[in-house]
């Protein structure tokens, strides 16, 4: 149970820091650059989490076709 509270506190700290960092970044960075960076970080995070959980797999040939169309 203690681990859950520690993780919750960590998430709260990250969330709080995110708001203040965003206020500074919006004044100094172009919106498209900021959005691209956020999407890149999200993708890397998902990759790391799926690797740790053992859920990572490469797309099949059919899935690559769908990805290419998108």
Automatic annotation (TrEMBL):
<comment type="similarity">
    <text>Belongs to the EamA transporter family.</text>
</comment>
<dbReference type="GO" id="GO:0016020">
    <property type="term" value="C:membrane"/>
</dbReference>
<feature type="domain" description="EamA">
    <location>
        <begin position="4"/>
        <end position="69"/>
    </location>
</feature>
<keyword id="KW-0812">Transmembrane</keyword>
<protein>
    <submittedName>
        <fullName>EamA family transporter</fullName>
    </submittedName>
</protein>
<dbReference type="InterPro" id="IPR000620">
    <property type="entry name" value="EamA_dom"/>
</dbReference>
<keyword id="KW-0472">Membrane</keyword>
<feature type="transmembrane region" description="Helical">
    <location>
        <begin position="39"/>
        <end position="58"/>
    </location>
</feature>
<keyword id="KW-1133">Transmembrane helix</keyword>
<dbReference type="Pfam" id="PF00892">
    <property type="entry name" value="EamA"/>
</dbReference>
């Amino acid at each position: 149970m203690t681990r859950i509270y520690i993780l919750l506190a960590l998430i709260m700290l990250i969330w709080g820091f995110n708001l203040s960092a965003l206020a500074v970044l919006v004044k100094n960075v172009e919106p498209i650059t900021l959005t691209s960076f956020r999407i890149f970080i999200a993708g890397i995070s998902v990759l790391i989490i799926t690797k740790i959980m053992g859920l990572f797999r490469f797309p099949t040939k059919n899935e690559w076709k769908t990805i290419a169309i998108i």
